[in-house]
Amino acid sequence: MNCARFQEVLPLLLLREAGPELLVEAKVHAGGCPACGALLAGERALDETLARAAAAEAVPPGLEARARRALGRAAGPAPVLRLLASAAAILLLAAGAGSVLLAPAPAEADEILAAAAALHRGVVRADLPP
Ligand SMILES: [Zn+2]
Question: What is the pTM (predicted TM-score) of this model?
Answer without folding.
Answer: 0.45
